[in-house]
Automatic annotation (TrEMBL):
Keywords: DNA-binding, Nucleus, Transcription, Transcription regulation. This is WRKY domain-containing protein. The keyword 4Fe-4S does not apply. GO terms for molecular function: DNA-binding transcription factor activity; sequence-specific DNA binding.
Length: 327
DNA sequence: CACATTTGACCCCA
DNA sequence: TGGGGTCAAATGTG
């Protein structure tokens, strides 16, 4: 199939459309970074250029789309090809059109693509702000502990495709690996960050602070999650640090895990992860046995705000009423 | 009663 | 071909 007017195949057309969309996205990101940098109006020309670039990318994309034929549209929207445009979106379960009973459909599904997945290691089963519903548990070959499967509670009412798997991969100390798939689209989040002082600890020397990880400005939470940061009396050795890593992914915008040395005492960063296609590094700090430990749950923006340590971050939080992070 | 969890069944896909 | 991801009936919980 080849367009008589353009002389290119639908496959090439799809590549062009994706390329234009990615250009547009990159320009928009650049534009956002520019706006966040607080440059003065003397940079207006640069601002104008960026806006123009963004506009051009989307205009090109739209003109490409306006030339496609019905047959090409069918090709582009076929499940195989649309996967190039959408990650984890409205998967066709494959059986909907088939004349099978509900019982016969059992276990019939299209295996989830892992293009938008990342994982986190944590010394405890991580809590995050989203509502998860367990839908399965499997014992895995060569694994001591079963793997638990969770999906977003709003999978059906809001079509949220987020899911996660939790598996204990270590015993002493216990390490839980949480693998996330897809980002939340349900926006079922808490409205404002809060600081919670752990009332269980009456010693007075330990605090638990929890930011409800939601930016009131940008509802950035969907893509965020917690990481663990633990500080002991004499600090953590490298081996003791719970490790959080991130997985691959299609986006070249992925940030590398942050060098722990950028964080000042009294705590060390165990690991960080970022959201594909954004500049966010987010995380949370979890509990420790140390009587002087600082446990903070929430999100940390270490991109352009230049927060060197937790104190500065907390100061920002108390001053502005929301944590210093963004999408 | 509504919603969550458990668990065996089912079958995709590496 | 079987490991692993998902479904859905049964069961639990508040």
């Amino acid at each position: 199939m080849e367009s008589p007017t353009r002389g290119i195949t639908p496959g090439i057309l799809l590549e062009k459309i994706v390329a234009e969309l990615m250009k547009g996205r990159d320009s928009a990101s650049e534009l956002r970074r520019f706006l966040n940098s607080g440059k003065s109006l003397t940079d207006e020309v640069e601002l104008h250029d960026l806006a123009k670039k963004t506009e051009a990318s989307f205009s090109d994309c739209l003109s490409l789309l306006s030339t496609i034929t019905a047959a090409e549209a069918e090709y582009l929207l076929s499940s195989e090809n649309s996967a190039a445009l959408t990650n984890c979106k409205s998967e066709d379960p494959g059986w909907i059109s088939k004349d099978r009973t509900a019982k016969e459909r059992r276990g019939c599904y299209k295996r989830r693509k892992t293009s938008q997945s990342w994982w986190v290691d944590s010394p405890n089963q991580m809590a995050d702000p989203h509502a998860w519903r367990k839908y399965g548990q499997k014992s895995i070959q060569n694994a001591k502990h079963p793997r638990n499967y969770y999906r977003c509670t709003h999978k059906f009412d809001k079509g949220c495709q987020a899911s996660k798997q939790v598996q204990q991969i270590g015993d002493d100390p216990p390490i839980f690996r949480t693998t996330y798939n897809c980002h939340h689209t349900c926006k079922a989040l808490l409205k404002h960050p809060q600081i919670i002082v752990d009332s269980d600890d009456r010693s007075g020397s330990s605090v638990f602070l929890s930011f409800e990880p939601c930016s009131p400005m940008k509802q950035a939470l969907d893509d965020s999650f917690f990481f663990s940061m633990i500080k002991q009396e004499d600090g953590f050795t490298k081996e003791e640090l719970p490790i959080m890593t991130q997985n691959q992914s299609a986006s070249s915008d992925y940030l590398s895990p942050l060098d722990p040395t950028v964080m000042d005492s009294p705590a060390q960063v165990a690991g960080l992860s970022s959201t594909p296609g954004s500049d966010v590094i987010s995380g949370a700090f979890s509990s420790t046995a140390s009587p002087h430990s600082l446990n903070i749950g929430g999100h940390l923006m270490v991109d352009s705000h230049g927060f060197d340590n937790i104190e500065e971050m907390l100061q920002f939080e108390s001053q502005w009423g929301f944590p210093p992070f963004e999408m």
